[in-house]
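worker-03 picked up job from queue 'complexes'. Input manifest follows; two sequence lines, order preserved.
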Amino acid sequence: MNDRRSSSDLGSSAEATLAAFPFPERDWERDARAIEARLTSGLRGSTDAALLAAPLPGEADEPSAVSATATPLTNSGVRTQSLAELARRSVEKKQANERQMARESLALAAQQRAKSPSSDALTVPTSVNGGDAKNVIASGVVASGTAPASAAAAPAKPFPKIALVFPALALAAAAVLWFRQPESAAPTSAELTPTPSTATPSTLAASAPSLAQNQPPLAAEAPRGIDPSTLPAQDAPAPDSAGSKVAAAGAAAPSKAAANKPGSTTARAAAEASDPGLPPDPALRPADSRSGGLPAKPTTGAVQAALGSVMSGARHCVAGDDAPSRAVVVFGSDGRVQQVTVSGSAAGKSSASCIEAQLSRARVQPFAASSFSVNATVRPE
Amino acid sequence: MSKRTDRELVDAAREGDSEAFGTLVRRHQQRIYRLALHLLRDAAEAEDATQETFVRAYGALDRFDGRSEAFTWIYRIAVNLSLNVIRARKPNRKAVPADDPRLEGLLVETRAGSANPLGDSENRELGRVLCEGMDALSDTLRTTLILVGVDGLSHAQAGEVLGCPEGTVAWRVHEARKKLKLFLVERGFAPQGEEGAA
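worker-03 finished. Artifact:
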């Protein structure tokens, strides 16, 4: 950074001359009167719009990234980044990591299943571990006690990887759940919150009596892993897939929808994880699922970051005001601002439209709800 | 009574208060004149441009949407008008004329405190070379440097005037300074200050 500064430092004398370039004194009052004499009401609206446009083209070698990012230099020459930008990058990186891990775990499970000698002999279409895989994909929580016998039957080699991947996914999902818990859908999301990893089949059955009824014990010989290529074909309910039902209950919800179609829940969630292009089914997935779907609403952090990035401009609008102004910002499901309503000291003034224009630039990630409103206070600088 | 803000003055002028616009003129005319003087390098043209800037601003009051500060909005009009004058000129002003009004100001300034005639002479020469170096820059770099380096606008304010992000302003200022430094060094004005003054 010192190199950057020194490469453009003109030296103390030149800097002083540049910063304090004098200009000849004039009779400013006479000049002002001359201007005032030219001001007539007929002038209003006569100015060419071109004079109000941005005056200069960019330099030929001007880096486009500079124009796009607009990160200013500090006095020390260090390029600063806004918190909003950092937060956005962090979220994007996290999402990419989670998707990658989910895909890897699916592929690993499929590979494992292909290698397993017992998999061909089994007829249960959706296995307990298949349910586990779904758990991992959809919620990142592993019901570790669901298939002890199959775990014992599995080859030892892939386990270290799985043992590393699953807890990492669980931690990531827990963090996501913590930060993206929707307020409006609190009861639903509470129902959809995955069962902790220490849940056993018996506790799952106890918490989901409708599922526990008429279900045989867990199939000890259930096949390990899940083959993604076979998942869409398993969309039809499987009445005897006890393991899948318990796994679905542990993973997604002991709700009626999940209880009615446990097999399809597992299959669809896994298929969505393997193909992010599939449309999400909000009834069958956690409200904050990040595997290619939309969150129910923008997170508090995202909204704060979005508003924070435009708030300085909004504050410019009320510079000189004594009291703060308030604004209700309504985001549409595409993440753009649909409406801004200004109240308080700026209401009815030109600064209200200025605030609206500034806050309208805020953007959040698309979300599932039709709209989302938030209150913002614009304090004068 | 507290001093009215630019925005209040604009609002009042919109409603027909010509005195409010007069206050706005008196508040900003010197800076606008200095900007025009540096861009145009001609005192008479700078005076005309200053007058025209406020007349055009008055004519566009209804289109001031309040997204920017009033003075940066007026600055933008001044820059556009000055660039129009420059474009209308014949390309015959490559060298800095002897009666360059920018140097005239420097002369008056140094004459007032002439304890060191040799230093004054060096300062004038430095000022002349600085003017030459600035004139050698492209319109874009020169205008940005004048706004930030001479007139003291922040990068954000200069970005509002020029309609570009702060990062672009920072890049342009850096480029302009780099080229200006090279120009100075080629003419024997090595940077002083951090390395110790000569």
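worker-03 released lock.
Residues 18-40 of chain B form the longest helix (23 residues).
Residues 1-90 of chain B form a domain with the Rna Polymerase Sigma Factor; Chain: A fold (CATH 1.10.1740.10).
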